[in-house]
């Protein structure tokens, strides 16, 4: 962590996060079910990096409740971003791996934080190049506002209005030392030059 | 809501980055930088198998391919990589251009610069030409082969191909066979392989082995031999280099037939060494460096090298593009 960062608030602890994921798993099932039960033609797409682990947890919740293992793909949308050359930091491309045909499938795109909407826009373009999904729903743990594009999420864990100099950090035990969601203030000068990738 | 001031890890810190603005050779690149390029190339390779084999990553980036030496594969590979990334490539080859009218490299480059080019890919017969270019233009420069100096993207694609077959480079034995002395491919590979921890053996006729190797790499443990059997013993990979027909006037090799007898890899070698993988940068002279049956053998990965070439060049263009135009 940047030494200049100041934690302003903890937005969720581990139990909040677990309850939120549980609720959103049920919302997915509710939205994508018809008379015969959960639509078999659905798929989860976890966005690198924390969206992948969130999608994995949703997959287990859905399996526990419905007895169906929903296929899960992993997406890195960096190649589709419009701003990587404007950033100070060199981008790092992670794995994209979607082992099932997304055409005619109802996809749930999963990410940790929704901010400007640019990553979601890039992800939608990437998915469109890989096939023709029947529909795409968007799920995020935190919607922090400050959109720059007409993008909205269908499943939202919590809406938290924020300022541009702030950052929302979702930490998951799979890759972080702690579990929960924090609101952090950037004290470094380049905060506005190097916006969060959320 | 619980409020406590405890340290939260910053998301995705300490990701590896390229420290260079240009790619002139692998000699100055660190192990971490090489590994970053290979990892990025693996992600771009996946794009080549999508229904739409193109991503918008470098839209609006203009790249000129300056080829002062005949080249088909490397030029096409770069051009394909540029198009797969949605960049705008411009091709410039010395024949049929103002170079044949006597224009110098510096003038050509400055003309190119005046046309607002972001990146330059250069192939030149003189070693150091790409380095010279970095001093007269602002654009990012990528070396696509300069004389007998380096051919870094070829070295990188060879490394990627080896990493597809083997878990680690540590302790891997790689033999490079042929005209080492005139080979920029060999030089880039020697730098890359030794940095990643592989053991390198160089094999060829004495006339085609470098004499100054101890000065070129003073601390290395590179083995040199003129016996093919000695080179292949214990090797995991045999990388055959092309015998350059254009140099045959110099009597460095008695005849192509004799070269094949002594240094050509034949099916019997593959039978003797059951796990040996065969590589060749192309174009292959069938029946000279490799027997025709060896070229078509399942353990020859020559076509994988071609595919990996596009992926590696996409990765290099992508990683260096961030430094283009006033951001470096």
Task: Write a brief caption for the model.
The complex is a heterodimer of chains A (about 200) and B (about 325). Chain A has about 200 residues and is an alpha/beta fold.
Layout of helices and strands:
The complex is a heterodimer of chains A (198) and B (328).
Chain A: E1 6-12, H1 14-31, E2 33-34, E3 37-38, E4 42-47, H2 50-66, E5 72-75, E6 106-114, H3 118-130, E7 135-143, E8 155-159, E9 166-171, E10 180-185
Helix pairs in contact in A: 1-2
Chain B: H1 31-47, E1 62-67, H2 73-84, E2 88-93, H3 105-114, E3 119-124, H4 129-136, E4 140-146, H5 152-165, E5 173-177, H6 184-195, E6 199-203, H7 213-216, E7 223-225, H8 228-232, E8 237-240, H9 256-263, H10 267-272, E9 277-279, H11 292-295, H12 302-321
Parallel strand pairs in B: 1-2, 1-3, 3-4, 5-6, 5-8, 6-7, 8-9
Task: Provide a descriptive summary of the structure in words.
The complex is a heterodimer of chains A (198) and B (328). In chain A, the strands form three sheets. A five-stranded parallel β-sheet of chain A has the order 5-4-6-7-8. A three-stranded antiparallel β-sheet of chain A has the order 1-10-9. A two-stranded antiparallel ribbon of chain A has the order 2-3. Chain A has helices at 14-31, 50-66, 118-130; strands at 6-12, 33-34, 37-38, 42-47, 72-75, 106-114, 135-143, 155-159, 166-171, 180-185. Chain A is globular. Chain A has 198 residues and is of the alpha/beta class. In chain A, strand 6, helix 3 and strand 7 form a beta-alpha-beta unit. Chain A has a single domain (14-162), classed as Rossmann fold (3-Layer(aba) Sandwich). The model of chain A is unreliable at 189-198 (pLDDT under 50). Chain B is α/β, with parallel strands linked by helices and 328 residues long. Chain B has two domains: 31-150 and 308-321, Aspartate/ornithine carbamoyltransferase (Rossmann fold), CATH 3.40.50.1370; 152-306, Aspartate/ornithine carbamoyltransferase (Rossmann fold, 3-Layer(aba) Sandwich). Chain B is globular, with a radius of gyration of 21 Å. Residues 1-7 of chain B have low confidence and may be disordered. The chains are: A alpha/beta (198), B alpha/beta (328). At the A-B interface, strand 1, helix 3 and strand 9 of A face helix 1 and helix 12 of B.
